[in-house]
Amino acid sequence: MNRRDFLKDMAAAGTAITVASTGIGPLIKKGYAAQKKEDIGQCKSVKVTCVSETAWFDSARMLQDIKDTGGAMVSSYAHPWTQENIGGYSALLEVEQLDGSKHTILMDTNWRQEWCDYVFQKSGVDKLLENKKIDIMVITHEHHDHYWGIKSTLKRWQNVPLVIPSTFYPEGKALLAGKYKNDIAKVDNDIPHTGPLEVLGPDRLLKLYPGVAVKMFDLPIMNRVRGEQNFYFNIKDKGIVTVTGCCHAGVINLMTWAQRNIEGAKPYGCYGGFHIAAFENWDPKFDDIIKAVKKLDIQKLGCNHCTGWVWAQKARAEGLPIVLGTQKYKEYKKIPTTGPGAKDNVYLRNGDEIVFS
Amino acid sequence: MSSEPEPSLLNNRQYESVIPQPWAGIINLALILIISEIVWYVLFSPGGPVSLYTPNVGLALVITILMVIHWGLDAFDFWPFSRSFIQKGNVIVKGFSLLVFYIAIGVIVMFGIYYNVIGRFGAIFFSGPQLITSGGLGQYSQTAIENGCYAQIMMNTCVIFFTILWLTGFGYAPWNSCGKVTRAFSVWVSCLLLAVIAFTFLFFPHIAYMFYPAQTFMAAPPWWTNWSMTQSSLFHFGWIVPSLVLLYWTRMLWEGRPFSLIKTTWLRGIVTIISITVAGIILMLVADSIMSWYFGSEAIEGGMTTEQPAWRWNHVAEMAMFMQTAAAILYYYFDNWPTKLTLPMRAAVRTLIAVIGGLVIAKLYYVIGPSLLNLVPGLGQEGDTSLAWTVMFLILVISHAVFFDGFPVKKRS
Do A291 and B292 touch (CB under 8 A)? Predict the structure, then answer.
């Protein structure tokens, strides 16, 4: 680090001259340099129920599907996914305000419709939708495992208030409009969404309720997806909790963004897929994340999905506060290949809950 | 020790433009851009028929082919092709012969040597398919193949670096008195050895820690972490590639200066090694500071996307190759303009053109590239790198200008 500091001033000056003289502007918008910190208020608690984190049940099969169609850069709409291997990702978020009032949020809507119907019924989300008890639904990003089960939601409540990122591709927009059918990837929807729709871009923080905000990051993601939005909860006397679908922006980036942009932000907890060792592969960069989480002093980590079982296991072994899951997921009709048989369940799996309060 | 090798075919090519500059350069540049778009779509595009840009398979392949071209042109001076075929052969026949030959060798090296010889009987981490065969958690299709290709990319980069470094610094010394093939083979073997040594120290710790659990009995933990903010060996990639680009520029834009001023071979070689290495590291540090300014914040340890330290080190290499792309266009298509000023002046002007041209190409790549190359707009996607396109483009330019003599608007004179 000292060596890096050595030339910083000289480089900045030189670059300023070069950039100014050539007219080269920023290649991307700076997402981390807010002029003024935002106050998102506070809430008392948030309870997260894992409706489903098993987007796929067998990582090897999932990766074979990806490889067979040309790798991780190919659009998810072009892959003939093995249907028996896919499930989906969604979570129910119940927020308690300081005055005792409550809000219910549905995050994401799974992948395979049959699985979505099953886990919605198992978790009671089906009734919440049918009885219009969901205050708002947020689709974190356009990835198949978070979004393609939209028909299961819309057939229960076509008018559900919805927030999507502004970066959906035409296929994603058509899917929401009930005008999409793809026989290769096996995704379709003929029920148009007719309720309130918030299309969130990267330039503003969407404050849903006191202590609850959604932030969209415009970033490129594997399988030709762009942009992901994430939740920030500001828990009174505790600090910031991030709740994410895949967290492609990075769990450390998210917390750092909060510290830089949200008034009084202090890291407290995280829930979600953290997109680290997504397919149980390892990279030395993943050790960097363990080290960085330690430094941030995060108190509670509830992880699953694309975090990578191996990352959660190693993080726990190195002392990170990984919240252990129960054995409830084994009551589901299909269980993942990674995890069962391990001494500790380092994932919050299907049916598990975590409360940040 | 100060004797020089015989003038090579590569360095003594003489061309003349059929039409005047800058139109000759513009037409050839337009032609190669169209060809590059077609090649990208057919072979690499995620939406194309072959989809080699997985991303690492495509990147490893182009770097392997570039390495083979450097062997063929710089070390072996077109051997086994005859001098008369290179100088007098039909341009189309010669062009396709050389192109097919070097691509074939590249394919053999990657899919034969790495995948099925080294990976099967030696260092398994060079071969994705062998990692999959060995089994175990995480050794699945796609990720194992990407990891195997990563190891190849780093090794091949070391090989290219040392090949160009040796030839720039030492020429064919100490084998100048040997025959063409003997001296080329000697340089080739020496540079392979140096690359293996460099790989062992700079990249092998990364490879050993690329598995879960870490292969702690195989390699030391990444020792550079306190300087780099990451355990990733992309830190080393971030200085080797700029160093390599400086070597390219020494030969192309600066006409051998400043190292050619040193007449004693061993001294020139040592000065070249030290100064190029130091310059590469300084460039990397400067570039890192530029990115901190440009993105509005320093990289974050454990961060992702553009704030990931490893991404930033890799981005130094990406930007260096954008500038090398501009330099190659100037050198091969615009006759290394300007040519009439004093050497220091023309070297400075060419360098300025390469730097500014590189920034312009980078801007175009990130603005219109996503549409043309079928990529997602933005920076920082895990694994996504502009190097696949820049190296592919470089190969096409070299092939066009050297193998095909810049046909159709140039010819041998």
Answer: no
